[in-house]
Amino acid sequence: MKQAIHFGGGNIGRGFIGELLVRSGYEVTFVDVADALVDEINARRSYDIEVVGDTPKKIHVEHVKAINSNKDLEALLAAFVTADIVTTAIGPNILKFIAPNIAKGIARRLEKTDAPLNIIACENMVGGSTVLKNFVYEHLADNIKEKAARCIGFPDAAVDRIVPIQHNEDPLLVKVEPFCEWDVDRTGVVGAEPQIEGLTWVDNLEAYIERKLFSVNTGHASIAYMAYLKGIEDIASAMQDEEIVGFVRRVWAETSELLIEKYGFDRETHAEYIRTAESRFKNPHLSDAVTRVARGPKRKLGAKDRLVSPANQLVARGKKPEALATVIAAALHFDYAEDPEAVEVQTYLKEHGFEKALTHFTEIPAGSELFKLVAEKNAALKK
């Protein structure tokens, strides 16, 4: 069988990337530092996935094993020599911690073979593989960097699948939604493109990253911030509220106009993508707490993130993003006491007032067209 190494034996690794690799004819070696997880995978050499929704189904996944990288580095380095692909799903903040072992694995491989290998970071971030590559190259000896550049690819990826918070009796069982998307930038590939079921090789990854960010993430955040103001506790309940559903559809109308104009997405195909997003958020099996989806307002209000970026781009194109402006105002009122970012935003807001907080957290220039629109929507929210 073809060989895959996957860093991260958690729910996304097993319930999404690992399963697609096995389905495509790979034996998957999960790399993790959790003893119990590694031991359980090695004892069973299989696990189950439950796809939850209107037509639930169970998938039995075989051809898997695991390595504890803290305890058996030699086994990991040996696996690098024969690997056909390497993937990660560990969280953006952990990439720098796995980079030294990946560098050692690459060094061992390059001693034995010139065969190309692609390393794909499947993280909820922009340019994850490039970030990982930069961390890895900090640990590579200078005399092998040139060969590594020829033989090792780090194509960037965009991934999307809701894997809800879960507590299952079976420690390896994973519940996932039916939908999944895995787009990878073909321009970063070394050698032939690995053929993996469920993976789409694309020429313009930025278009797919923004489509996901401005549709799924923008929509999710919009529902959460508006639901919080109404005292609704979970996303599925919010999607039973006609006012919120109507509102998020207006948000999607604005971001859809931007995405279609900017990237040339087919209008009907994109409309279907939005309908799918709406049905995902309505799935009661995937429902998440409003406070969890809304958490981190400082990051979500960033100039390059899901709310302010599309709003700025629409204004630059002569449009008036009224729904997005309303969400930006609502996000500044997210005052959940258990979220450190929310506390920071609220403290600043109380000390400096709404308008200074708006500019401080969003970088929207004071007095600009978007600034005035958000201020106007904020006044309407408070009525």
Describe the structure.
The structure is a single chain. This protein is an alpha/beta fold and about 375 residues long. The chain has 2 domains: about 1-205, NAD(P)-binding Rossmann-like Domain (Rossmann fold, 3-Layer(aba) Sandwich), CATH 3.40.50.720; about 205-380, N-(1-d-carboxylethyl)-l-norvaline Dehydrogenase, domain 2 (Orthogonal Bundle). It is about 50% helix and about 15% strand. The protein has 17 helices and 12 strands. The chain has helices at about 10-25, 35-45, 75-80, 95-110, 130-135, 140-150, 205-230, 235-240, 240-265, 265-280, 290-295, 295-300, 310-315, 320-330, 340-350, 355-360, 370-380; strands spanning about 1-5, 25-30, 45-50, 55-60, 65-70, 85-90, 115-120, 150-155, 155-160, 175, 180-185, 200. The strands form 3 sheets. It has a 6-stranded parallel β-sheet, with helices on both faces. About 40% of the residues are buried.
